[in-house]
Specification:
Largest sheet: 3 strands, antiparallel
Radius of gyration: 28 Å
Oligomer: single chain
Number of domains: 2
Strand content: under 5%
Length: about 425
Amino acid sequence: MSRSESNLRWPITIGCIVLIVPIIVALVLFVRFAQNSFKPLPQPSKVIMPNPNAYDFYVQAGKLITDTEKLDKMVEQMKKPEERSYTVQPNERDYTSSERYEFVKQNAPALKKLREGFEYDCRHPNDRIVAPSFKQHPEYKDFRRLARLLAFEGEQKAANNDWAGASQSYFDIIRFGQDVQRGGAILPMLVGRAIQNIGRRQLYTTIDHLNAKEARKSAEEMEKALARQTPFVETLIEEKWVCLAMLQGLEKQVPYNKQNLPGLGLFARHSANNYARYMDKCIENARQPYASKPPEPEPPKGILAGILAPVGSKAMYVAVSNDAHNASLAVQFALQAYKMEHGQYPETLNELAPNYLIKIPNDPFTVKRPLQYRKTGDKYILYSIGPDLTDDGGKPVDNPKTEPDKRYVVDKDSKGDIVAGINR
């Protein structure tokens, strides 16, 4: 071999390596991508819908509301002028309580239809639709309007000193909010929890006005509500299937392009399998108590999967917080009944079971530990340890630097306890 040929050998060898290595790496990545992309998607079990379905009654009730624009304005006028979603005009007059009550009477057919639905099982419509977009639900707005109508109805009864009747209207809101989310994914869960919050805030106003028998009845109703609540893990499972159905719809819409190269459908399949693995980990976490704080799963790779992936811990907080407020309310009604019959509050919550509550509800922010309680003279402190998972001895979440009406609002990152009568 001549010296010139020897001098050329190393550059040629290095050049071949530079060319071959990227090709090998690209082939490995493509094989891994293809394996994930062509892997069959998991298939959900068949959804069995109740017949009749209470949800259909609720949709019909929403359509019976006589003047949604007027109702929306009535609701906005319950806020301060600067907090309303519309510009307050000069000399604008707010609706009076009498006008609100007259409006409720006009919408009696809507509330009657809603309550007819309570006679049947309820399940959210099947959203596991194989289509390239999510199914729309315009009825959600009407559902919140119906909850407001029930709240106005209860306020009218309270104004007439019918606190038991007012409580029943507010409990109907709780029942309604629980029903509309059953069988649904995260969005209907948020709608249902918002509706429950409307009813719960109204129920707080009734506690001190109830006699022993009425308070016992309310405690019983809240225990039923606690038992009826849809577990968050079921919501996450439905979220998984709804989003997988949408990704499957994308795959079927554009499986390949005209050049017979992998197109949008292939990427949708790839994203779907990544998303399914991510959701399985979220679902496993949701089976654990909130207090166990399992690590957040790594977000799924791929643009589509990343967009669809919920913020697992935040959604779980919304569910657990709602359950904590409901548990606290059940105990507050039982405490009122006890006081009406004994002239004072009990020394411990154990004195409430089984005569006033079947069992003392656990604090959802703990691992099977009941709500915390202590008697303070002729009053009491009742609290959940809250999302920081620390028992602060009944020191409420307090945000003094925020707006006055938001000072005691609890969110996922709040520090302090969720104290009955203070936090919401």
